[in-house]
Amino acid sequence: MKKATILILSVFMFVGIGLLVFTPKTTEAQTLTWKMQTTWPAGIALHRSAVGLAKRIEEMSGGRIKIDIVPAGAIVPAFEVLGAVDKGTLHAGHGWSAYWIGKHPAANLFSSVAGGPFGMDNVDYAQWLYHGGGLELYRELYLDVMKMKVMVFPTDIIASEPLGWFKKPIKSWADLKGIKMREAGLTAEIYKEAGITVITMPGGEILPALERGVIDGAAWMCPTMDKELGLMDVVKFYHAPGMHRHTGTLELLVNKDTWDKLPADLKAIIDVASRENLFRSWIDLVDQNIKDLELLKTKHSVKMVETPKEVIMEILKAWDKVAAKYVAKDPFFAKVYTSQKDYAKKIVEYRRDFYVPYETVADYYWPKKK
Fold this sequence. Notes:
The chain is built from 13 helices and eleven strands. The chain has helices at about 1-20, 45-60, 80-85, 120-130, 135-145, 185-190, 205-210, 225-230, 255-260, 265-300, 310-330, 330-355, 360-365; strands spanning about 30-40, 65-70, 90-95, 150-155, 165, 180, 195-200, 215-220, 235-240, 250-255, 305. Residues about 1-30 have low confidence and may be disordered.
């Protein structure tokens, strides 16, 4: 009897070990392969940042999420990425929320906003996202207001944009009247206040439009990105600073059904990777901007033009008019706009009390050349 019992136990142990060895891996351990498209041309820093984010997610997940990432137009046109993620044609996308203002004007408030908004810089703006309720509003916009099956993650802090490239120096607000210029988002409406004819197009179309005279000037993003598009080969007057897009972030878009199927640890990895990319992309881009601006001036004979203060102030006034129009007619736009203003009041006052103005120490060590 004892021998029979031992024999039976041995059989169960053998079968158990066999099950452990030959049972397929659980769903959680399986490799997920995502299709992801950006809204950017291949080879530019914005697309490279998205590639870096995808690589980071794969590394942090131990290869459980592999992302097949392609540039704008590879699967859908640049301005159709959000819709493709919503429908599940793409598992994920990388873009800029102001591209979606046709679906809701508040999308612009999560990309780049004139004046900060309300005096905030990029660090302040990121704090509003993570500590002032901004991220919750961002997701409410996509999921509840626009009814998109999309989870959104801020993923790149972008540099304050210059005013742009023009064929002649801009010396006043009046000089902008009659110019045909590439712009996007609600900045287009700001510039219409100056009498500019605004033409919206993806970044990859800007250079040929300048070459053919379809537009007279353009604003893209920053020295590095502008150099990569080759704008300096057509236009030589580079105006900075700008105030039309002073802060902002880019975004990782994930199909909601795809997101809901992920286990908790993979969700956490995507969240952490996006936050890390927010900081890494910013410091990398600023460092590269410094180098590329020098190249633009020395190698490509680009002439830097300081944007007149009048132009900066008129941009702020124009934005206030544009924003007031949307606040009056759209409750959710008003909700986000008020949230930004309330948080800006707190942080701008705090920084005024505790931070020496940038120019004070800068002028002490590096007096501005006259």
